[in-house]
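Entry 14. Ran structure prediction on the chain below.
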Amino acid sequence: MKNIAYDESLVPLVRENMKAFLTRVAESQPRGGQLLEIGPQERQQVRDTFHGWSYHSFDIVDTYRPDFVGDITRLNPQIPDQTFDCILCMDVLEHCLQPFDAIIELRRMLKDGGLLLLSSPLNWRIHGPVPDCWRFTEHGYKVLLKDFEIIEIDILETPGRDLFPVHYNVAARCNRSKNIDPRELKFRFI
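Output, structure tokens:
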């Protein structure tokens, strides 16, 4: 595959960008509360960044021994409504068969006012774990998160290629009173 060197050159940029985003968000939040990380595998970054939180993990398989095994695109009755103060779903949504259903389930698990942190690639090759189904733009995130208050959409631009970001990080606050028709949304003009 001829583009492997290009892809490998982007990995440090994405990792540093995500680390800076998570650090910035963690430092802006009061310490403590219940935190859930979706699909952490063996990564430690969230645990190393969010000090003083009660950490829990969730995955679709039990390979890495998460606290909860389930599918975020379906109801997970083992987790009561409004359990978590913060949920992180980093580089997972692109692998979900039903990303809108995933957002509904994550919102159900979040407390009102709770924080949802998402990330996903845009300008990135198909990758595992399979399936790799989706790419989201900033406009797509606005639709997915229509019933949240979006705090920040952090865009990592592709070097030398405008309007095709490598990666997005998103921070949004759960707002249980919102029920927006996506056709009423306003988007940034490009």
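The chain has a mean pLDDT of 94. Will compare against last week's run tomorrow.
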